[in-house]
Amino acid sequence: MTTASPLRHSPPKLEFADVRFCYPTRRTPALDGLSLSVAPGERVAVVGRSGAGKSTLLGLLMRYFDVDAGSVRVDDRDIREFPLVDLRALIGVVSQDTYLFHGTIRENLLLAKPDATDEEIDRAVAAAQVSDFIARLPRGFDSVVGDRGLKLSGGERQRIAIARALLKDAPVLVLDEPTSSIDAANEAEITQTLTELTRGRTTVVIAHRLSTVRDADRIVVMDSGRVVEFGSHPDLLARRGLYAEFVATQTGVPA
Ligand SMILES: Nc1ncnc2c1ncn2[C@@H]1O[C@H](COP(=O)(O)OP(=O)(O)OP(=O)(O)O)[C@@H](O)[C@H]1O
Ligand SMILES: [Mg+2]
After folding, report:
1. Ligand 1 touching residue 95 (CB < 6 A)
2. Domains of the chain: residue spans and CATH
3. What is the CA radius of gyration of the chain?
4. What is the distance in A from the centroid of ligand 1 to the CA of 121?
5. What is the pLDDT of residues 93-135, one digit of tens each?
């Protein structure tokens, strides 16, 4: 079905406008009047304490749940106006908990791009540094993973998620702690791959690591469901606020 979809393939603008959201099982809101605008092609890093509401941004953008008040907008249109498949087709995700469905590795990758050629798949898994791992499995790409299949480590799943995002080639990218389960030896190269992946896309990187946030166009600090600071790395350091604290814990040097 082809709808007269207004979604473009050039990177769109993203906006969270005065968003309030409370998980149904909670009494305090996860997002409490959060506003954040990301320009087309801009790379914004989001940092903040555990529970600040960072991953909730991703859930609302993907419409795993909807805002209680305010709106999430893509190119100035409320995302609730878009067909869900069109919205999700726009967004590449590498999340904190990568979900692999019960199926082969190839099927899990093809989810991102059903018509991907073998060559495209090979290129994506090579860039995500998961080719050797797949090659060593007894059935290679045909190995069954997921709940009842092969158990993969957090880092292995994350790299498959990166390969998926590479294949999907979407104009918006959300990386939720992309290197959190990847060991130090591989981190630099994976970070490099992800940096290349963000080029020309509207990107939100949720990160705990200084190395992934320092290069962002803008850094946003969240606390208790709101944006409390934003700016460049040097500007935020000079404020001696939450960001300075975050850097101090990362580097061991007091703010
Ligand atoms: N599925 C859920 N159901 C109920 N409450 C949730 C759910 N997911 C998150 N929360 C709560 O919402 C708040 C924000 O959580 P969120 O996952 O957005 O934090 P975060 O900033 O991503 O933290 P972290 O750095 O630990 O990943 C927290 O208080 C959390 O306990
Ligand atoms: Mg999170």
Report:
1. no
2. 11-90+171-183+200-255 (3.40.50.300), 99-169 (3.40.50.300)
3. 18
4. 33
5. 988 777 888 999 999 999 999 999 999 999 999 988 899 999 9
